[in-house]
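Bumping my old thread because nobody answered last time. Still need a sequence for this structure:
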């Protein structure tokens, strides 16, 4: 992808401060400059249920999610690095961000991070149900469909509660579990039983002045579709939603800006005329 992207934004990216990410803040900023993005955010992980090291929870380091422990150290370090970079930065509309995962599983820590005045932008994400593994790690092929749907029942219920809490700007990747259940394992899922609760999630966000993202990472993965897909973006718009961001969910600099143009096309197909970025949690709109 070459040339300027002055109407394109990437509001969901990671650096090496995320345990599953690579690269530095400066490398990410340089890549965003090269692409000519109209707005760019770094949103490193802050999985609130992994605030401390594994031994604090009495867990072995070898757990599948072992890398994510210690967010109380790596997330603030990312914020510091981003803020320092922003103080002498020219030629890029750079937003200091964080991806706040599972905030209700350690609400005190989540409130502490969400109150950090250096942040422009917070994504609220739900990667794992309380007491369960991240959806990334679950062995779906060893489960029957009722067990998988039970996980999804809890997923959307916990997501709704997170949206009612609302200390974030945009809800991350609404259909996150499908990346793994459907994309990696090929198990077809019917989300129609969840239409009512998804409507409630959207209405809660809209009432609180929050938005959703089109997370285009699924386009470069086996799933092959953005998270969520067009139907849900249309539903959000039909319910009165106006705040929409687009994010690559890049975990390396090479993926920054990747497939963002496809996300813009989806936004247009859903009836959106503007994309949104946030400065100190205030929405700013860019005409598509």
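Sorry it took so long. Here it is:
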């Amino acid at each position: 992808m070459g040339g300027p992207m002055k109407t394109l934004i990437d509001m969901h990216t990671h650096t090496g401060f995320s345990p599953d990410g690579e690269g530095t803040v400066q490398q990410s900023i340089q890549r965003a400059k090269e692409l000519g993005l109209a707005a760019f955010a770094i949103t490193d992980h802050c999985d609130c249920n992994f605030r401390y090291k594994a031994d604090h929870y009495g867990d072995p380091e070898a757990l599948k999610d072992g890398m994510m422990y210690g967010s109380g150290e790596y997330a603030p370090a990312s914020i510091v690095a981003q803020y320092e970079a922003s103080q002498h930065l020219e030629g890029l509309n750079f937003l200091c961000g964080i991806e706040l995962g599972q905030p209700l599983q350690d609400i005190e820590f989540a409130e502490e991070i969400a109150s950090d005045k250096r942040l422009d932008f917070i994504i609220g994400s739900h990667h794992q149900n309380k007491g369960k593994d991240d959806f990334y790690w679950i062995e779906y092929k060893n489960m029957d469909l009722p067990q998988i749907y039970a996980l999804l029942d809890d997923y959307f219920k916990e997501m709704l509660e997170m949206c009612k809490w609302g200390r974030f700007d945009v809800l991350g990747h609404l259909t996150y579990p499908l990346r793994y259940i459907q994309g990696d394992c090929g198990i077809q899922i019917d989300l129609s039983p969840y239409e009512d609760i998804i409507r409630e999630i959207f209405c809660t966000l809209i009432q609180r002045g929050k938005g959703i993202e089109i997370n285009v990472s699924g386009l470069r993965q086996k799933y092959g579709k953005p998270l969520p897909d067009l139907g849900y973006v249309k539903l959000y718009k039909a319910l009165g939603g106006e705040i929409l961001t687009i994010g690559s969910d890049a975990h390396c600099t090479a993926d920054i800006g990747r497939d963002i143009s496809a996300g813009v096309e989806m936004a247009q197909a859903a009836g959106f005329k503007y994309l949104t970025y946030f400065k100190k949690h205030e929405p700013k709109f860019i005409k598509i």
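The chain has a mean pLDDT of 96. Let me know if any region looks off to you.
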